[in-house]
Amino acid sequence: MTYKKPTLFIALVPFIFMIFFVTAGIIVMNVDPQIPLIAGTIVATLVGFKLGYPWKDMEESIINSISLVMQACIIILIIGSLIGAWIAGGIVPTMIYYGLQILTPKSFLLVSCLLCSIVSLSTGSSWTTAGTVGVAIMGIGAGLGIPPAVTAGAIISGAIFGDKMSPLSDSTNLASGIAGVELFDHVRHMIYTTGPSYLISLFLYFIISLKYKHGNVDYIQINEMLKIFTENFWISPILLIAPIFVILMVILKIPAIPGMIGATLAGVFFSFIQGYNLQKIITILHYGFEIETGNKIIDTLLTRGGLDSMMWTISLVICALAFGGVIEKTGCLDVIVETILKFAKSRGAIVLSNIICCIAMNFIAADQYMAIVIPGRMYKPIYEELKLHPKNLSRVLEDAGTLTSPLFPWTTCGAFYYGTLGVHAFSYLPYTFLALINPIISAFYGFTGITMEEIEEDIPVK
Description:
Elements: H1 8-28, H2 34-50, H3 55-67, H4 70-88, H5 91-100, H6 108-123, H7 126-131, H8 133-144, H9 148-165, H10 170-179, H11 183-209, H12 220-232, H13 241-252, H14 256-273, H15 278-287, H16 296-302, H17 311-329, H18 332-343, H19 347-365, H20 368-385, H21 390-404, H22 412-421, H23 425-428, H24 433-448
Helix pairs in contact: 1-2, 1-18, 2-17, 3-17, 4-10, 4-14, 4-15, 5-6, 5-12, 6-8, 6-9, 6-11, 8-9, 9-11, 10-20, 10-21, 11-21, 11-24, 13-14, 17-20, 18-20, 19-20, 19-21, 19-24, 20-21, 21-24
């Protein structure tokens, strides 16, 4: 059968409709992006029919596209159970318990960012961190006389750092899955850009904190939280064995799936010690942990996890990749890639255009997952053409896609942080240092070649 090659205009039609559907759905109608994505996929298939592609070919491409991230989806499901087990086992409460005790006036912003990083690393969720511990920190910051925008910037920087670097994060697993990289290879490679960005951010927060070093922290709220933790959980440094185990997995390059299962079993073991029976633990692994202490912050923080909690993310991934499978099969993606290559032929130009594309998807499509999936599918063949290892791509997707999402008030992240912290995105933007610095360092590496690893001949690209 003869297929027509789409013109640039025809190739852009599915993207234009997809962006319109998703933007209108999220911003105007306040609905989840899955159905708008399916609508965009329908438009893409209509374009495919016009170009002469039968449904069978497009369906096969959809299935192949989704299969590329099945490992990531399995990991995400395991992580849901892991989070429930870690909360029930007292692991997450223990980390928060000790973290809350290191707040001091003269380094409030620095410690706040560190604390949010710890919580986000342990849970894999920036939203949960900002919506719980972040809310408490906003109250403490107000008592110190620190401007809300500055405090919010420190909270969000810490939250997105943990979300980006945690093997438990759905966006981290999604980026590695889209690029075709082993999870821990992806996490290790991000250290080169995120590490310097994070250290610079911490230094800036420390400098700003010195202006408020004579403030007095109101420990009433903190002491209340600490008391609730000790009343409901056995708190001990022994429980920190679990997060240390996760760190060792990264260092020892243990495969993600067996490693995450091992971490989950550690949570199950400590859940028994906390007094839960097998039936209750299985229920927690499936549906998540629930608690009612009377403290809204703690209840919101700890009522989460479970295999079922990850189904929303997986459904979004499947819908987005269905769209990606159609535009790839019909040649629309190839035409756009060819156009990009006409103007960006060097390694630095490709990385920079990749960063801009991720930021643009956050700006237009209003969702960080879209800022990972669509640019990931577009740039994967370009990185292969330049013989760049796919972990360079996965790193850029997070440097620009994950981190810049909170900077726009109409994105899902921007809207969430505004509703949770009470600070508009354009107000905290100048103080969200990690999100501002990281893409710049990523672009610098692209042009200089620093840490930009190439594909070895004996290592096949997924």
